[in-house]
Amino acid sequence: MNIVVVGHVDHGKSTIIGRLLAETKSLPEGKLEQVKLNCERNSKPFEYAFLLDALKDEQAQGITIDSARVFFHTDKRNYIIIDAPGHIEFLKNMISGAARAEAAFLVIDAAEGVQENSRRHGYMLAMLGIKQVAILVNKMDLVDYQEAIFLNIRKEYEDFLAQIDIHAKNFIPVSGREGDNLAETSEKMPWYQGQTALKVLDSFEKEKPALDKPFRMPVQDVYKFTAKGDNRRIVAGTVDSGKISVGDEVVFYPSGKKSHVKSIEGFACSPQDRTSAGYAMGFTLEEQIYITRGEIAAKTSEAQPENTSHLLVSLFWLGKKPLSKKKNYFLKLGTAKVTARLEEVHRVINASDLSSSDQQEKIQRHEVAECTLKLNQTIAFDKAEELAATSRFVIIDEYEICGGGIIRKGLKDKQSIIRDQVFLRNYKWEKSIISRENRSEKYNQRPTLILITGQKNVGKKSLAKSLESRLFADGKLVYFLGIGNVVYGIDADLKKNKEETQAKRQEHLRRLSEVAHILLDAGMILIVTAVELSQDDLSMIKISIDSEQIETVWVGDNVTTNLNYDIQVPSHDDSREVVEKLKEMLQERGIIFRP
Question: In this structure, is residue 545 part of a structural domain?
Fold first, then answer.
């Protein structure tokens, strides 16, 4: 069972854990004597905390910097106890430790009373969904074991916990240094008739594997094997909840592609008929479909995850710089990693006193907020109250985890209708017996949509046709789709309406994408030109087409939109030099192969 121990700095968390290790004989043989001898040699008073604080700088400063994992046992079961730092500067490490916990001890110094981080840590436990909590009022020896002081602290903190919907299982007066009420009942506090900390620990209920919840497995990767005629493609990941059996129909979100489980595979073991929550595993599919890391596998017969690029979230921010609307961040949920931007701050909450403000435009360090995040692409998730594992996320800024939180609900975005249509298309798609890999091998190329964009009159069409001609001469299966072919063909009904609207533009892009999807499914390289595509336009196209199948080219020196293009090329009357440059790019990306 995973237990986290949290609380304000210097309130004695490490001392309590060290004492419990000694009292239950969970230490390696001779470890206690070794630490005592080291203290004696260095003329340093012995501290039970030294059993944990192994890092030199931790012992020098007297504070816990990282989350120490301690293996510990009682007569009932084994534990992993996480000693989380209490100093406000190390709050991030406390959260990373608490996120793995099933229950918590929260430590409060009897002499200092309830402090800012006592409340902040309580709020974080509530936010992470940890409901099994016991409060240890420590250092009772420093206040002469007075019952009144204990009762005042209990009343103050109980009132706080009630506001954040946490009910503490017990309040226990203890002394980590003297061992009172940790493993044995203390005679120095006859007024306390409750259980010891160890008894309370053993009374916590072990979190059961989420077998009865809907099946969820974030896709970690797809492994391909070729040795000795092995042609398996194994979709691998760790099952977060539910169970899966051979023959079950699975659907992947947010793409909506589906197939049946052909076999269940494990590392260094024979194939199995089923697997369930908590296991790292993989499975093969009856029909070969293209899926990517970050998608979530679910069973078609069960409740489905939500899908959107707009999220209403509760988050905490720990970055040195504030979370602002003007910057892009990375959001990681499960195995998915997408670009995210703060769109709106609804409410900022002071986690220590629960006061709130709805006037802020930024989220400062150590603040908790309810806000809306806009992602650059759709992700799959569940709401926090339904499935915690697929609702928790972290935010990365400049290669550091600077925040995290839980998804409250998905919000409708301007792509919702198109996404629903694409999902239905993928779900109903009649698959050919010829796989995408078979076509790539036959045609010696990878199906790709090449979007050539830029301002008017920069030679986009001539470049596209020249590239088509060059690839065709090399024996590639390639096609140039002029925008007029679409506008006056499948878009003829839209053309009748002269008024240019955002809805009309979206529908135009949707139809273009559907044509492209069919041609890519046939294994072709498709070249399309369009005037001044934006990042929103590209996001719309990516709903219908896997982003790995799209390459964007901006023609001309003047970039007039926010498009994140793959390559920029100059405008030339003679496009042979540019064509060779684009061909080289396609070779480098593995779309066509070097001779």
Answer: yes
Do 413 and 444 lie in one domain? The reply is: no
- Which pLDDT band, with edges at 50, 70 and 90, does 53 fall under? low
Number of domains in the chain: 4
CB burial of 255-269 (b: ≥16 within 10 Å; e: otherwise) equals bbbbbebeebbeeee
Dist CA 126 CA 179 (whole Å):
29
Q: Is residue 51 part of a domain?
A: yes
d(Cα 15, Cα 13) in Å, to the nearest integer? 5
CA dist 365 and 89 (Å) reads 10
pLDDT digits (tens, 9 = 90+) for 126-159: 777 788 899 999 999 999 999 999 999 999 999 9
Cis omega (within 30 of 0) for bond into 190? no
The CATH number of whichever domain residue 369 belongs to comes to 2.40.30.10
Quick check: 305 and 251 in contact, CB under 8 A?
A: no
Shared domain for 192 and 326, answered yes or no, is: no
Please identify, among 203, 233, 261, the residue that sits at the C-terminal boundary of a domain: 203
417, 450, 467 - which closes a domain: 417
Res. 62: pLDDT tops 80: no
Give the structural domain span for 272. Answer: 217-299
Greatest Cα-to-Cα distance within the chain, rounded to the nearest angstrom: 95
Q: Are residues 255 and 339 in the same domain?
A: no
Are 336 and 376 within 8 A, CB to CB? no
H/E element holding 403? strand 400-410
The angle, 0 to 180 degrees and rounded to 10, between the axes of the packed helices 535-544 and 416-428 is 20
**Which pLDDT tens digit goes with each residue over 530-589?**
889 998 888 888 878 888 899 999 999 899 999 999 999 988 666 788 999 999 999 999
The three-state secondary structure class of 548 is helix
